[in-house]
Amino acid sequence: QVQLVEAGGGLVQAGGSLRLSCAASGRAFASYVMGWFRQAPGKEREFIAAISPSGTIPPYADSVKGRFTISRDNVKNAVYLQMNSLKPEDTAVYYCAADTAWQNYYRDYKYKYWGQGTQVTVSS
After folding, report:
1. CB of 77 within 8 A of CB of 24?
2. Torsion over CA: 106, 110, 112, 118 (sign)
3. What is the pLDDT of residues 38-55, one digit of tens each?
4. Which CA distances in Å does 82 have to 16, 78, 101?
5. Residue of 22, 9, 15 whose CA lies nearest to 79
6. Residue of 36, 37, 50 lying closest to 103 (CA atoms)
């Protein structure tokens, strides 16, 4: 079992940057696929990025491509999301998620473990 705790959210002006972290407890973190999702008020949860156990990164969501970067540290049991050039439309609760299977990495329903989320608010 994996427990996930996100941190790093907050209020930032448009054009600014934030770095989210997701700390994982439990064994075998290095064997998990990690994903970042977000959910804005009144909207469905949206895939942002994923990273395989070995660090392979599939295409990001179009909405964040070129601005966000996912990374992981298997020694520290953590996954990160560097967010640059933030826009007001990036405002949402951001979640990290973990699962052992790579298939459908962009589907929220495939992830077994979820963090509690961290709020990101981007002001214009």
Report:
1. yes
2. positive
3. 999 999 999 999 999 999
4. 11, 13, 24
5. 22
6. 50
